[in-house]
Amino acid sequence: MNISLVSLVVDDYDRAIAFFVGVLGFELVEDSPSLTNDGREKRWVVVRPGGAGTGLLLAKADGDEQAAAVGNQTGGRVGFFLQVDDFDAQYRRMVEAGVEFLGEPRSEPYGRVVVFRDIAGNKWDLLGPR
Predict the structure, then answer these.
(1) Distance CA 18, CA 1 (A)
(2) How far apart are CA 86 and CA 55, in angstroms?
(3) pLDDT tens, residue order, the chain (130 aa)
(4) Buried-most residue among 21, 34, 85, 90 (CB within 10 A)?
(5) By the 8 A CB rule, do 85 and 35 touch?
(6) Which domain holds residue 116?
(7) Which part of the chain is the VOC domain (predicted)?
């Protein structure tokens, strides 16, 4: 077994794709027309880091309850973890792209880490080796 996708509720498909692909360097795996369970049009949008098995399903908020979850899917906690081989290069890339960081990089027993917000406002850890 493996986890193939994790849903990330966003307010706009194209802005989310631009962030994850253009800023973070993910690959766009799929962007296909689809339908909701009740027949309305939507898109099936999947992004993932290059070479990764698990991807993000970028799911556009549908209704007030889902819209309220945009940017707060994990109740204000860090809920996503982006592990990279070259922490400094990825951090510089993200700083230059204007990503919002919540503090400075620090060293922990498990590696280098800094918290950032994605395009929707969710908190992520950028993690790299010590």
Answers:
(1) 30
(2) 20
(3) 999 999 999 999 999 999 999 999 999 999 999 988 898 899 999 999 998 999 999 999 999 999 999 999 999 999 999 999 999 999 999 999 999 999 999 999 999 999 999 999 999 999 999 8
(4) 90
(5) no
(6) 5-128
(7) 2-129
Q: Is 91 helix (H, G, I), strand (E, B) or coil?
A: helix
Q: Which tokens is 116 given?
A: 């950032």
Residues 12, 29: Cα–Cα separation, whole Å: 17
d(CA 92, CA 7): 27
Separation of first and last alpha carbons in the chain: 30
What is the amino acid identity at position 22? G
Supply the CATH number for residue 23's domain: 3.10.180.10
What is the model's pTM?
0.92
Count of structural domains, the chain: 1
Q: Are 3 and 24 in contact (CB under 8 A)?
A: no
Gyration radius of the chain over CA positions: 15
Q: Which amino acid is at 83?
A: Q
Q: Alpha carbon of 14 to those of 6, 20, 60, 119: distances in Å?
A: 18, 10, 10, 11
